[in-house]
Amino acid sequence: MCTTQPLFERTGLSLWLVAGTIKQSWRDFTMIATRSLLAAMVLVTAIGVRQANAQCSGNAGSCNTTNTASVSVGALVKLDMGSAATALTNPTADDVNAGNIIADPGPSFTIKANRSWTLKIKSQNATNWTYVGSNSGVKPIGDLAWSTSVGGTFAAITGSDAAFASGASSTNGTAAQAFFRTSWLSDFTSASNAPGTYSLPIVFTLTAP
How far apart are CA 120 and CA 207, in angstroms? Predict the structure, then answer.
């Protein structure tokens, strides 16, 4: 094994590495050393602060340190719906002939929230019920009306949110119930009475507030 020792020559304020290909001035060495020293000082200071925050000392056999635990609680809501589907009463020939409105109970709800809350209702479909069949059935979503009580005021459902129920404070389980009324046009030739299956997805949204 053979090693070579580089030869340094000093001329004025410059130091040159003769045996190699790298040349560096004395000023460059000074700048590097200064940066290294500053980095070491910052590291030592950070370690000292961290240790100071985690330690205590006392002369009476005890010492105390304090750790503050924190957590954030958002607006929390929970909505339980009794059933994911409602089977509406099928209209008879007499219902269509008379243009009857058929009432059916809708889903029930249990509402939980840690602050004031609002339950909203809307149709997921913008204009018509979803139709499955071969007779070109078209039934407007407004043919379904809703209320929160069987004898209450009924409103035709729309594609926009409407207030269904609300509470001014937190709750551990407020009950709510939907009731539906389906209108049937007194016209056997109407597209809304064409044979087939009609379905309407209804969206209930619980918000706080």
Answer: 8
Q: What is the pLDDT of residues 103-129, one digit of tens each?
A: 999 999 999 999 999 999 999 999 999
Domain boundaries, the chain: 8-54, 77-207
User: In angstroms, rounded to a whole number, what is the distance separating the alpha carbons of residues 24 and 17?
Assistant: 7
Mean pLDDT of the region 10-16: 41
Question: CA of 187: how far to CAs of 72, 138, 182, in Å?
Answer: 59, 13, 15
What is 77-207's CATH number?
2.60.40.1090
**CA atoms of 93 and 66, how far apart (whole Å):** 78
> Which phi-psi region, left, alpha or beta, contains residue 45 (left: φ > 0; alpha: ψ -120 to 50)?
alpha
Using CA atoms, how far residue 184 sits from 51, 180, 187, 197, in Å, is 78, 13, 8, 14
* Per-residue pLDDT reduced to its tens digit, 145-183: 999 999 999 999 999 999 999 999 999 999 999 999 999
